[in-house]
Amino acid sequence: MGYKIAVAGATDNLGREILDILAEREFPADEVIALGPRRSIGSEVSFGDRDLKVRDIDSFDFAGCDMALFALDTEAARKYAPLAADAGCIVIDSSDAFRMDPSVPLVVPEVNARAIEAYRERMVVACPDPATAELVAVLKPLHERARIRRVVVSTYQSLSGAGKEAMDELWNQTKGLYVPGQEVAPHHLPRQIAFNIIPQVGEFMEDGSSRAEWQIMAETKKILDRSIRLAVTSVRVPSFVGDAESVNIEFEDFLDEDEARDILRESPGLLVVDKHEDGGYVTPVESVGEFATFVSRIRQDSTVENGLSLWIVADNLRKGSALNLVQVAEILGRDYLQKG
To answer: Which of 292, 306, 293, 298 is nearest to 261 (CA)?
Structure first.
């Protein structure tokens, strides 16, 4: 006997990616239900070799569902997650609605899978921002070896993280720069994104940090270690899918770059591609469609006593978000619900 699974937000990019991964990994489901807003009722989404009719999330009864994977925005997650949880359905949520709630576990399976067991208090498991998920997967094995004091990270985040309208804006602006009379003014982003980069991801907060920068700092502390100090700069770049991070780490103990490379090679979810030659690294384009977080350009930082610098790349939709949700569902099914 398999599971009854709902995917909320199934018509959006993330929801479609979740369905693809559930099918690819042959998740043990007897029934998979695609949920969306009323305007999408009757449309179809792909699930493996078949199509699913989208059902209305407003009228859907979550009773009888074992798990619901939420690819919804924050407001919608706050609306529908309590309804699902009250019906006995475990919610695995991709938004920031519950990430910092102390009663809700915030989980990256390769890093803190055991935290999932706390789902029972609220019937919700939160997944972090993709930039955080990619970062902590790399930091954890290094932290276990040499104890991290401080991390300085700059993220280079694609437009898929800002939604379809932002992706369309890049497309339209790029065309507009070559087509006389076509508008290139920004509408969904604070500045022109075509052939440009924007040092703002999310709204600004009182201390001058953007929302994305604050999330990475707060989520890393909750998942990994509250004593780690972080400085984050998040940048929106003109690409559709795939995020990158430039990371500088200061440790309590010395860690040689060769040993760090070996540690990361043996760590779950990571793939080291690090040749000191032209093109001996991974860029966001190569990460698209892949399940791994790629680590390149690992080197000593001589400006601090015990420092390393490195480069991280991952498909933010597939690895950073959708796979994270599916892996949580797999662990819940295998270790806690144990059907069939």
So the answer is: 298
